[in-house]
């Protein structure tokens, strides 16, 4: 029912995207300004960082989306436009510049920025680049847009799926950026999702707000919640399906399609953590309730000692028990089982809260793979949760030691 397709943020009908280098970033080979546009007004929903220090673009976007409508998303990289005295003015100016160039309402523009915090953002390169940016719009422009929102990312993050609603083919796709300063709460990194499905603004917001609890809120790279995190979804209805206006079977289908995209982006983000060499996926089963499962999974994936052990391919399962123990979750430690798994196999390292004999050689072989599963069985109920992260390497310190300079 859900098929992966090409096109990323442009897979859905009526969406074009593009990206250019306008001069915000010193490296002229890297895009630093991106644009996503819907042919027709779209229903919009968004979630934002809970950090009290918020980027000016988020404040502007929140205001623009009070009517739950949008036509375009503009995003620059290289400067977060955060903690600037004129930040709101600059973000509004970006909206007006784009709106004037495209003949749309400035209030229909979603604005985002990512990069260094606390440095003034010069609007002149953006103003000069708007005509070129609009000209770069293309039905195949998802990759260029994805490149334009990257900072320390090393890989483009885009995905799209097709699905059926009442006999109509619909598509949903997205792009994301995120590599460091990732420990979200009610938001994440920067994620832009588009769909041609018709859905009410109320249910679109409900779908997004509900989904992130089990996806983006379960990703952690380094324990730092960004100031500019945002997830935004635009739905333009061009698939011509009957509008999803109640929580019925069609809404469930849409939720699953959205979740397919968001989980895919979560894995891409976690696997591309700053300096990372491995994607870590912690799967917790047998919890007494969902909150307990989430608490345990997130605590393990956030553990610096566990992350460092995974970098060294060291089956130091005691660090996992330690992370569970300080998580605050109500668990019976004497029931906990822990295993490691990868393409090289699965190995049990802890049973009923105590160590078992296992082959260190086999464990290392398993942990040398690029994708590692940390499997935790609490044996205390039927709830489950999954969290994503990455290993902690020497390069993380190198990247962040001179990030600004």
Structural description of this entry:
- By secondary structure, this protein is α+β, with helices and mostly antiparallel strands.
- It folds into two domains: 3-271, L-amino peptidase D-ALA esterase/amidase, CATH 3.60.70.12; 279-401, Ubiquitin-like (UB roll).
- It is built from eleven helices and 15 strands.
- The protein has helices at residues 56-64, 87-102, 124-135, 142-148, 201-211, 249-271, 290-302, 304-311, 318-325, 360-367, 394-401; strands spanning 3-4, 15-20, 33-48, 69-77, 109-114, 157-165, 168-177, 190-195, 230-235, 279-287, 337-342, 345-351, 354-355, 371-377, 383-390.
- β12 and β13 form a beta hairpin.
- The model has no long low-confidence stretch (mean pLDDT 95).
Question: How do the helices and strands follow one another from N- to C-terminus?
Answer: EEEHEHEHHEEEHEHEHHHEEEHEEH
Radius of gyration, in Å, reads: 22 Å
Give me the number of helical elements.
11
User: What is the CATH C-level name of the largest domain?
Assistant: Alpha Beta
Range of helix content: 25-40%
CATH architectural arrangement of the largest domain: 4-Layer Sandwich
Structurally, the number of domains stands at: 2
N→C terminal distance = 48 Å
Inertia-based shape: globular
Given helix and strand content, the structural type is alpha+beta
Number of strands: 15
CATH homologous superfamily grouping of the largest domain: L-amino peptidase D-ALA esterase/amidase
Low-confidence stretches: none
Mean pLDDT: 95
Can you summarize the main beta sheet?
9 strands, mixed
Beta-strand fraction estimate: 25-35%
* CATH fold annotation of the largest domain: L-amino peptidase D-ALA esterase/amidase
């Amino acid at each position: 029912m859900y098929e992966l397709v090409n096109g990323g943020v442009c897979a859905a009908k009526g969406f074009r995207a593009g990206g250019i280098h306008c001069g915000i970033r010193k490296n002229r080979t890297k895009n630093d300004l991106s644009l996503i546009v819907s042919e027709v007004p779209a229903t919009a929903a968004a979630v934002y960082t809970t950090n009290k220090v918020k980027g000016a673009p988020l404040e502007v976007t929140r205001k623009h989306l009070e009517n739950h409508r949008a036509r375009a998303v503009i995003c620059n990289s290289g400067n977060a436009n955060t903690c600037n005295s004129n930040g709101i003015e600059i973000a509004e100016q970006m909206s007006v510049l784009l709106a004037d160039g495209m003949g749309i309402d400035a209030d229909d523009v979603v604005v985002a920025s990512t990069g260094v915090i606390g440095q003034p953002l010069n609007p002149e390169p953006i103003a000069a680049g708007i005509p070129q940016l609009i000209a770069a719009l293309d039905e195949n422009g998802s990759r260029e847009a994805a490149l334009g929102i990257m900072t320390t990312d090393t890989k483009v993050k885009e995905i799209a799926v097709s699905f059926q609603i009442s006999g109509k083919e619909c598509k949903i796709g997205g792009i994301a950026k995120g590599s460091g300063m990732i420990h979200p709460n009610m938001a994440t990194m920067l994620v832009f999702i588009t769909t041609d499905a018709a859905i009410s603004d109320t249910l679109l917001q409900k779908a997004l707000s509900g989904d992130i609890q089990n996806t983006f809120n379960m990703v952690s790279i380094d324990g730092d919640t960004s100031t500019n995190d945002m997830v935004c979804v635009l739905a333009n209805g061009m698939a011509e399906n009957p509008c999803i206006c109640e929580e019925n079977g069609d809404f469930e289908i849409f939720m699953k399609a959205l979740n397919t995209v968001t989980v895919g982006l979560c894995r891409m983000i976690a696997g591309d953590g700053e300096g990372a060499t491995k994607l870590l996926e912690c799967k917790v089963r047998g919890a007494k309730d969902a909150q307990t499962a989430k608490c345990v999974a997130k605590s393990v994936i956030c553990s610096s000692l566990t992350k460092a052990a995974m970098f060294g391919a060291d089956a130091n399962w005691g660090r996992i028990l330690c992370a569970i123990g300080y998580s605050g979750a109500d668990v019976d430690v004497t029931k906990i089982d822990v295993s490691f798994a990868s393409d090289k196999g699965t190995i049990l390292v802890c049973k009923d809260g105590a160590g078992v004999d296992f082959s260190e050689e086999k464990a290392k072989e398993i942990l040398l793979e690029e994708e590692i599963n940390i499997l935790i069985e609490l044996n205390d109920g039927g709830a489950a949760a999954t969290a994503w992260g990455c290993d902690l390497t020497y390069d993380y310190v190198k990247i962040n030691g001179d990030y600004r300079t």
